[in-house]
Write a structure and sequence with these properties.
It is built from 11 helices and 8 strands. The chain is α+β, with helices and mostly antiparallel strands and 319 residues long. It folds into 2 domains: 197 residues, Endonuclease I-creI (Roll), CATH 3.10.28; 98 residues, no CATH class.
Length: 319
């Protein structure tokens, strides 16, 4: 089972007051239903691929309106297709649609969101929960980038979803795609907040565990890469310093150098691959006094400048 299916299965079992259950059913019908009219009889048809969601829809209709649904299971022959659960009301269709404030005067589904059904914050989150069950998805946090989305069919629905999330501190964005207006989250913290607010507690724990594991792994990789880069830099710097020392010894000699430069050269020659920090740590045992990292850096810069000056003087004498 995918992570998205696990989330949907978990939130499909959440209990609540009738007002919240009604708001959830309102969202389910609004986001994933077809209204069929035959000889004056309104039928609500809802299609889903998940058994858990099908059971939730049956429960909501029975709990709120005391009706049963016709259920047809359409088996798909191909392996890459899931079976479809087709749920249809056989009675009270018009009464339910009116009670849920879903129809306009022309008996069409309203594009605007019912203010009456979502007056309470808990009911607004129930609408969010229903929308995610029917038209939402979330990437597996262990296998891909963080991404959660809900597909709205019009701008009013998209604005409503964004507004509800904003009220609880979740900043969602939207983009127009061929399948509709996609309201999405890409930040891990925002997705975690969404899972918490819709009641997917177990999924939230798994998400956070995976996030911590990935963050730690990324941190460890960055640390290793940084250590490797620092080590390569130290080796390159040490090689350059040894080259300058050899040039200075050949073209100027080391006897007339100051004690500080002589000590720096002794440390470097004795430890050709060490970083300046490592040379500093070994300084007391090798030369009998502490030599700081910054002090060593200044010494090797002085040696470099001396080499440059010698080369410059040679060039001027030849010209």
């Amino acid at each position: 089972m995918s992570f998205a299916s696990e989330v949907k299965k978990e939130i499909s079992n959440i209990q609540g007051d009738d007002c919240c259950l009604k708001a959830e059913l309102y969202s389910i019908i609004k986001y994933r239903s077809t209204i069929k009219i035959s000889t004056g009889n309104f039928k609500i048809e809802i299609i889903t691929t998940m058994n858990a969601i099908a059971r939730r829809i049956v429960y909501l209709f029975k709990k709120l309106y005391s009706i049963k649904l016709d259920i047809i299971l359409l088996e798909k022959k191909k392996l890459d297709y899931k079976s479809l659960y087709v749920l249809t009301t056989t009675e009270k269709g018009l009464d339910i649609l009116n009670d849920l404030d879903l129809l306009d005067e022309s008996y069409r589904l309203k594009e605007t969101t019912s203010k009456r059904l979502i007056a309470k914050p808990c009911c607004q989150l129930s609408v969010l929960r229903g929308a995610f069950m029917m038209r939402g998805s979330i990437n597996d946090p262990s296998k891909s980038n963080y991404h959660l989305e809900i597909v709205a069919m019009n701008q009013n629905d998209a604005d409503f979803l964004i507004g509800v999330m904003l009220q609880v501190g979740i900043i969602a964005k939207s983009i127009v795609r061929s399948k509709g207006i996609v309201v999405y989250l890409k930040k891990a913290e925002q997705i975690a907040d969404f899972l918490r607010f819709v009641g997917a507690t177990n999924s939230l724990f798994r998400f956070e565990d995976e996030r911590i594991r990935r963050d730690y792994s990324n941190y460890a990789n960055r640390t290793i890469n940084c250590d490797i880069a620092n080590e390569e830099k130290a080796i390159t710097t040490a090689a350059k310093q040894l080259k300058d020392i050899a040039y200075l010894e050949k073209n100027f000699g080391l006897l007339n150098l100051s004690d500080r430069l002589t000590d720096a050269i002794l440390l470097r020659n004795a430890n050709p691959d060490d970083s300046l920090s490592q040379l500093s740590e070994k300084s007391e045992s090798l030369i009998g006094r502490y030599f700081s990292k910054s002090g060593l850096s200044h010494c090797f810069k002085d040696i470099e400048r001396m080499c440059q000056q010698i080369k410059k003087d040679k060039d001027e004498s030849l010209s």
